[in-house]
Here is the input.
Amino acid sequence: MMRIIQMCLVLYAFALLQMSFFVHFLPEGIAVNLIFPAVLFIAVFERAESSLSIAAAVFGGLLIDAFSETVFGFWPLILVAIVITVKLILENYVRLPIPKKF
Amino acid sequence: MYHLAGSSVKLSCLPGGVRIRYNMAMRKLLSRRRLVVGIVVVFFVLALNVFATEARGFMVQVSSPFQAALWDSGNSISTFFGGGALQRDNQRLREENLLLQSQIVSLQDTAEENEELRKVLQFELTGEFPLVMGEIIGKTLADGIITIKAGEEKGLRKGMPVITSGKGVVGRVHEVFQGYSRIQVLSAEESKFEAKVAGKEISGVVAGQGDGKIIFDFVPRDADLAQGDLVVTSQLGNIFPENLLVGEVAEVIKTGAGPFQKAVVKPFFHTKTADVVFVVLL
Here is the structure.
């Protein structure tokens, strides 16, 4: 539970940083998305039976939806689909010795 | 469709059949408890859509102090590394330039206006229409939305026009909360308003294209639209006050044999460099 809370706080910080801090350093019209790579990072480096990446995908997607004009649930759905695909591929087709940290 | 063999599942619906290892790990992932949690989350997300405005308002209110602090620190660091005082002078001169161009447009449109009107235009903006200043604290550039620190308590309402200090068009108020508002910028895909070319009898529609781009569309094909023309707001449509600066024509596009031409317009409002905007209380 503590890990999930920490993960939520980190994703929330990323959302604020991408909207209010990094906009000053990028060319006009370009925005950085920190939540996507964070969720993918968790998905790649977590154990197969862990669901932290799915929780991250749902929470991160809700954050993106809350700060944009899309319907709530749009980005969680996409991120969860990406995370499940990544987990399936890693579990069944990848034999690299990826360290499992989460 | 699928065939269980030991700990594997073969999906024959996929080309060549795909064998996926349905092992203990996957079984644990899809445990009953987690499925129940997942269903609860799905219902929660669906319920959020019923209270979408309140949910977004709550997020804005909770996040705005942090956003304001991050905005200020990002601004300070980018100013420091981007030239410091030189960049501030550049920004001040850019705003002055826009104001001067706006004055030229007003004089062209009403030629008989005299020296006294020119003095009136050189006074503060509040001499023309009531304004509320809003400090920008966040941007969601993908949707063409910026968040400002001014809301219901200052008289803001949805649909009110938003401009810069140099009388350049920013956009319109999209959502209003207590203390904060979200502004849809003119380059947002849903943004459309009537406009004209300063000094010429050419009218059209400015439409946002996303990613900071706008086009000037539905201009009659035989109109003398040229690169460098100044696009300003018109009174038609009753969205913006007249003669507010929109941008400069960068490229004229005439395709096919249709009755209209269009132009790519370089907007005067830059989301990256602007720190404050003004809401026109109409």
About this structure: Chain A is about 60% helix and 0% strand. The first helix of chain A runs from residue 2 to 20. Chain A touches chain B through 34 residues (CB under 8 Å). The CA atoms of residues 13 and 35 of chain A lie 10 Å apart.
